[in-house]
Amino acid sequence: MGTRVIWIASGCIECFWCQQLATDVFVHGQRGTEIRGAIRLDHQTSSNSTDRSPIDVSVLPNEESNFLQFVADGCPTKVIRLEGDWPAVGVADPF
Ligand code: SF4
């Protein structure tokens, strides 16, 4: 499995969708929705928009990794960004 990165772009409206569905990944932090350090290789909790730290695949189970595409598709402002070797599935993808 290759590198996987998840980060939050500007424009989050704090609807808590992602935080409620994937509690191991998203958290309400000091600067809005952030990616938990516990699942990142750099162990920093932030939006990960500048650091772009890969997730630690030994910590985040595959089932939850795959689920994150669904979570990103459901974000009302589409600010959850997945980069790298993510599975090409998503409920909002018509193709
Ligand atoms: S689903 Fe999107 S808009 Fe809602 S809290 Fe998460 S990142 Fe913010």
Describe the protein in words.
There is one protein chain. With 95 residues, the protein is of the alpha+beta class. It has a single domain, classed as Alpha-Beta Plaits (2-Layer Sandwich). Helices cover 19% and strands 19% of the residues. The strands form two sheets. The protein has a two-stranded antiparallel ribbon. It has a two-stranded antiparallel sheet with strand order 2-3. The longest helix is centred in the C-terminal third of the chain and has 13 residues. It is globular, with a radius of gyration of 12 Å. The relative contact order is 0.26. The mean pLDDT is 89. Bound molecules: iron/sulfur cluster. Iron/sulfur cluster (SF4) binds next to helix 1.
The total of beta strands comes to 4
- Give the second-level CATH assignment, the architecture: 2-Layer Sandwich
Question: Low-confidence stretches at least 5 residues in length (pLDDT < 50)?
Answer: none
What distance separates the N and C termini?
24 Å
Please name the CATH topology: Alpha-Beta Plaits
Shape, per Cα inertia axes: globular
Cα Rg? 12 Å
Determine the mean pLDDT.
89
Domain tally: 1
Order the strands across the largest sheet as they lie in space. Answer: 1-4
What is the CATH level 1 assignment? Alpha Beta
Helix and strand succession? EHEEHE
As a percent range, the share of helical residues equals 10-25%
Task: Provide a count of the helices.
Answer: 2
Quickly give the structural class: alpha+beta
Strand content: 15-25%
- Molecules bound to protein: iron/sulfur cluster
Main beta-sheet strand count, sense and barrel state: 2 strands, antiparallel
